[in-house]
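anyone else get weird line breaks when pasting these?? whatever heres mine. first is seq + tokens for prot A
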Amino acid sequence: ESDTASEISFQFNKHKKTPSIGSHSSDMASVSSVSGSVLSVYSGDFGSVDAQGTVEFALDYDEKNREFQVHVSQCKDLAVVDEKKGRSDPYVKTYLLPDKARMGKRKTSVKKRTVNPIYNEVLRYKIEKMVLLIQKLNLSVWHNDPLGRNSFLGEIEVDLASWDWSNRNLNWYPLKPRSLSAVNGVDHRGVMNLSIKYVPPGSLGKMCPKNPPSGEVHIWVKDVKDLLQLRPSGVDSFVKCYVLPDTSKKSYQKTRVIKRDTNPVFNHTIVYDGFHTEDLKDACVELTVWDHEKLTNHFLGGIRLGLGTGLSYGISVDWMDSTQEEVAFWQEMMSAANEWIEGLLPLRSL
């Protein structure tokens, strides 16, 4: 039923409360620190401010350094957020859409007490030209609030495939109201088709030669649909798996790479032994999908299967953040010992 069956032990110091458990470092952690959630394109409090004014910027691509550059010059006649004080504290934020995770956001400094801010800053993205041409630039202006309730002041979206790259001049563009259509579905990263099963210790009977002395969690990664396409030829994807909080090499498993396919079929089974029933409340199976390249792998999306309590063995951890769908999937596995539980779960930024 699968091309590969890997069996590894689930082992970590459950009672040793060290900083490494609460603040584990993995490929996931390094990516999420720069990417953030895609929906943070529109994070903050929109308030009742109507978009108005213009923004002056220029776009360029540095072929030598393989760098996309957004030269943000200035804005004029922005909306006033604090009418009593007659002030706005604006800054400019950019995203490449659809969110490719590794790109993250870029933003300028905040200019205080002005509706005509001057920035003269360059926001830079290290990216291949052919990848850039299948994306859109979202440039938005925001009022910075000390309490974090930032107000949206306007935006512009540029289709980079049709952009005139010979035009390196600064030009003025009108700011538009926020696009709700851009929020809906902007974080669609694909869907993973998988099955999981928990085999409690000794549950198969004494006469069974495969009766595990300790519990086992079986993970059958079948396929993924509608992955983000990072290049015209498709995507070369593979799946990584960890059982958190263990991020050691013993916990790490991965599938083979499926080339040039946004709907890869993996059919790969992983078995983790060393699981006791009580561990299921504190552990989390993290499955992440990556695009494989020679120099670096790019994060495409992932899921975390667990109870989503925010705690692991009494320690607060940021990775115990499963969605309602992921929690329900894990709970169904816990309540149906020795049975395969099938599911389709959307990939997300982690």
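and prot B, same format (seq, then tokens)
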Amino acid sequence: SSDGLCSSPEILFSPYSKSLSRSSVRSRMSLKPPKAYNSLQKGALIWDPKPLQVKKIFEALKKGLNEYLEAHQAELDYLSGRHKDTKRNSRLAFYYDLDKQIRSVERYIRKLEFHISKVEELYEAYCIQCRLRDGATNMKQAFSLSPSTKASRESLVELYKNVQECTEDMCFIEGALEVHLGEFHVKMKGLVGFARLCPGDQYEVFVRLGRQKWRLKGKIETDDSQTWDEEEKIFIPNLHEKFEIKVTELRGLATILVGVVTCDSINFFTTKPQAILVDITELGTIKLRLEVLW
């Protein structure tokens, strides 16, 4: 499109209450948890929080969002310059068209700024709960080493509850943060195998990201070109899961495993399409080419 917005990551927002004074993260966020967290209740954790992984994703996400912000700010500066020149030249129709584009980019910049502020707010709340959990864990360990008394046992029970609540709040925030990760558009670019790929060979590629799956079949044609039954798939980024890629060769009713690899998505949070060349076999005799656009 003329305003350059079609390639931007999808911005997803959720309402929040302004109060940050309550003890529970969930009580101060008027936010419905994602489906994966709907069953999260007191004493029933789905998984342990992973602060180091969350930190890596947060830093990559914030960097990517700032790249989009800088790109659109540069576009706004360019359009504003043309807007002034057009006003002097008094080409009315073109002037109003530029004015419309400028307003569109300005609105998108405001959305990006709001999006970044919400991501930062979530991560700040996550870090607070992480520090509280670490402090309660250390105190729990100290009390467990001291002589057992009624007071120490009561303190241990209370500390256990604090650790559990902080852990649940961290899991909840992880789910809320995933809402803000946008989308990965993955394009199939074909297999690279040199002498390993022959006309008539058929392959199946299976890509998994958490519960999301993409299964596609392809064939090597007589002119060495490749045809695939699907070319693109949209994946929702996940804080904890990596891309798992499995390639099998189809020979009649039999299937032969070519290789299974995993691919981290940490580098995909950027404005430019990322070309990926993955070694499917250990020696790299067959590779898979993909393109990821965030």
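btw re prot B: The mean pLDDT is 83. DSSP finds three helices and nine strands in the chain.
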